[in-house]
Structures are given as structure tokens and as C-alpha cells.
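User: Can you recover a sequence for this backbone? Please restate the input before giving your answer.

Assistant: Of course. Working from this structure:
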């Protein structure tokens, strides 16, 4: 009986240790950031490598390269991906051999690893890395690290939420990445785009996301709303209760709060022609309808030979978003010129970045900023 009690106690102790280990393991996994895949390039030929030794995997093969043999010339060919004239199939992965080494693509440094896929005549270069490290290369492009830390922290949380929402959305068939590295998603430039101040904001908000009724929100944001945010329903046709139009008194210091573009009628016609819109001599541009934030929904272009109706957003895209910075504008004709006078920069939906700066300067917290621009939402710790 004595030995049986000893054996039972040992078994119980082993069970407790195993249970504790499982809990510890689960806790560690729960704290790790998910991996995100970002398309950073699409070209026929790229120069790729690493700051140290690396290995290449593809077509069942693995090959190690020393720093002296880098960078590698990687090109698309009819038979697949070629590296130093050797065929590696339709997909290769490039991984640094040490944790301190970084990937290189056309002399830009990237954390994580590279996945290169042959897509038609081109090579699609995808950077695969932890979400938090991806954000290191995003925030500086999206908001100035010089701004108050609470504003930069709000941007970090919004950017994380945006990326995680994309990460958890089913990918279209034949798409291997979650995000683009351009303004179509979030501007990402790898290590060259990092800044110690914005990195600190990412680290201080690690794992924090914005939710509505327990679900990740569509965390859209824009440079400057011009004093009135836009509703998602008016811009993209889909309504969300936390993306409604509302007055914003906080972005008046933005250089984009008021803007003007004066252009000769013939120059404007040429801009439209370059984008495939062939019109005669322009006479008049007339806004026809507006959304609840006073942005132009539809306008009419009168020209020699007819009339053309366009959405405000389509017109802005055709003439250039650097020229017409938002659809919150008025237009007049003076002699041979069209004069566009507007407010704000971007689509206007969600968080106004210049507004976050204004709120931070007035003493608002990161939480208050996010709740102002995404009303009814909650900031939660996701991992």
C-alpha cells in the first residue's frame, strides 16, 4: 500500500507538471503575433538575397548561399523561376540562416522571409513576417513619428486592426498574399521605413485592436477629412455603424484642410484623354449630387459634342488624386481655367490622421481618439 501511494503521488505530480507545461505552451502561443504575407514587388527580374547567409528552397531542393555569393539574380522564364541559370520551379522560398540576418530585395531590407511565385511572365515577391514587425515598416509612412505619441499609438492600433482583418478574410483563389505594400492597403517599405519612435508606439500597443460587438472593425483611415468624415456607405456602398459621417473640428491645422487647383481647360481635357476619356473642348463641370458630408457623388462634364456623367470619386481618379485631393470640392470656370477649391485629402472615411494630431494636442487619449473616429467601438487586447 505504501508503494502504491508513492506511485499515485508521482503520477499526480507528473500530471500536474504536464498540465502546467500545456498551459504555459498555450500561453506562449497566445502571445505570439500572427504571420502576415505582403506583396512587395512584381517584376520579371529581381535581385534578392540577405545581409548574411541564406538558404533557398524550391522544387524539392534546398541550397545554401554564403554572403559572398549574394545577391542572387532571380528571373522569370517559360520553364519557371531561374536562379543563376538553374530552374527552381514555380515557387521558391528565401530564408536567412540566422535571426540577425535580414532579407534583401533590390537592395531594400526586409524582416522575415521571402516567398517568390511565378505569375505569368512576372515574379510576385511576397514578404512573410510577424504582424508586429510588419507594422514597424508601416507606421512611419502613414503618420509622422514626430506627432504626439498618443496619436501615433492610435495609428498603430488602427493599422494593426486593418491588417488583422485582412489576415482573417478568405483570400481570393490564386492569391498568396494578404496585403499589398501600396496605398491600396497600407504603405509598407520594410526596414528602411522603420523609425524608433513609431516602433515604440507599435510595441506599446502590441496586440491591441479595435472591435465592434466583439468583431474586428474595418479600420479605414485617411490623411485629412476636411472638417467632416465621410460615411462608408457613400464611398463604397456598404454601411457600418462605426463609419458614419460626422463633423470633425480637429484637423484644421492640416496643410490639406483647404486646397485649390487651377488648371487650363485644355490641360484638363488632355489629362482625361490620357486616361481614356475622349471628350471635345470642355465648357463646364457641374456637380449634380452630394452625400451627407457634402462630398460630390456625381457631376456632369459639358463639352463640345455632348455631356458626360461621372461619379465624383471616378473624376478624381482620372484627373489625379494629387490634383483633386478629395471629392469635398467646388468647381468654377474663369476664362480658360477651371478652378477647384476643396477641403481634405483622401476618401474621408474613418480616422482622420490630422485629426488625431489635433485631438492629441488638446489632451485626448488614444482611447478617446479611437472612440471619436470609430464610435461605439472598443479597444481590446487580441494577443
Amino acid at each position: 500500500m505504501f508503494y502504491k501511494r508513492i506511485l499515485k503521488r508521482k503520477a499526480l505530480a507528473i500530471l500536474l507538471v504536464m498540465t502546467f507545461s500545456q498551459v504555459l505552451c498555450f500561453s506562449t502561443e497566445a502571445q505570439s503575433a500572427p504571420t502576415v504575407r505582403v506583396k512587395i514587388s512584381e517584376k520579371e527580374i529581381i535581385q534578392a538575397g540577405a545581409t548574411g547567409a541564406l538558404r533557398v528552397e524550391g522544387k524539392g531542393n534546398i541550397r545554401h548561399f554564403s554572403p559572398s555569393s549574394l545577391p542572387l539574380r532571380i528571373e522569370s522564364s517559360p520553364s519557371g523561376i531561374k536562379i543563376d541559370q538553374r530552374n527552381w520551379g514555380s515557387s521558391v522560398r528565401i530564408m536567412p540562416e540566422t535571426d540577425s540576418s535580414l532579407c534583401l530585395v533590390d537592395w531594400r531590407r526586409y524582416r522575415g522571409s521571402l516567398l517568390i511565385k511565378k505569375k505569368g511572365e512576372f515574379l510576385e515577391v511576397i514578404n512573410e513576417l510577424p504582424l508586429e514587425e510588419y507594422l514597424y515598416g508601416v507606421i512611419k509612412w502613414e503618420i509622422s513619428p514626430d506627432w504626439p505619441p498618443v496619436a501615433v499609438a492610435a495609428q498603430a492600433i488602427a493599422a494593426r486592426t486593418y491588417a488583422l482583418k485582412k489576415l482573417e478574410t478568405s483570400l481570393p483563389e490564386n492569391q498568396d498574399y494578404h496585403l499589398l505594400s501600396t496605398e491600396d492597403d497600407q504603405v509598407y517599405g520594410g526596414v528602411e521605413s522603420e523609425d524608433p519612435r513609431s516602433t515604440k508606439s507599435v510595441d506599446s500597443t502590441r496586440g491591441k485592436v479595435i472591435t465592434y460587438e466583439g468583431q474586428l472593425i474595418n479600420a479605414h483611415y485617411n490623411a485629412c477629412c476636411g472638417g467632416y468624415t465621410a460615411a462608408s456607405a457613400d464611398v463604397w456602398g456598404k454601411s457600418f455603424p462605426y463609419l458614419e459621417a460626422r463633423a470633425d473640428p480637429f484637423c484644421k491645422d492640416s496643410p490639406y484642410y483647404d486646397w485649390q487647383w487651377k488648371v487650363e481647360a485644355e490641360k484638363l481635357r488632355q489629362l482625361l484623354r490620357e486616361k481614356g476619356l475622349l471628350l471635345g473642348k470642355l465648357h463646364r463641370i457641374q456637380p449634380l449630387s452630394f452625400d451627407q458630408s457634402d462630398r460630390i457623388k456625381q457631376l456632369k462634364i459639358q463639352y463640345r459634342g455632348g455631356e458626360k456623367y461621372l461619379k465624383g470619386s471616378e473624376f478624381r481618379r482620372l484627373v489625379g488624386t494629387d490634383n483633386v485631393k478629395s471629392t469635398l470640392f467646388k468647381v468654377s470656370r474663369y476664362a480658360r481655367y477651371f478652378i477647384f477649391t476643396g477641403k481634405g485629402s483622401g476618401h474621408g472615411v474613418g480616422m482622420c490622421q490630422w485629426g488625431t494630431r489635433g485631438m492629441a494636442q488638446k489632451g485626448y487619449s488614444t482611447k478617446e481618439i479611437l472612440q471619436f473616429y470609430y464610435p461605439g467601438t472598443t479597444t481590446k487586447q487580441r494577443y
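That completes the design. Residues 2-31 form the longest helix (30 residues).
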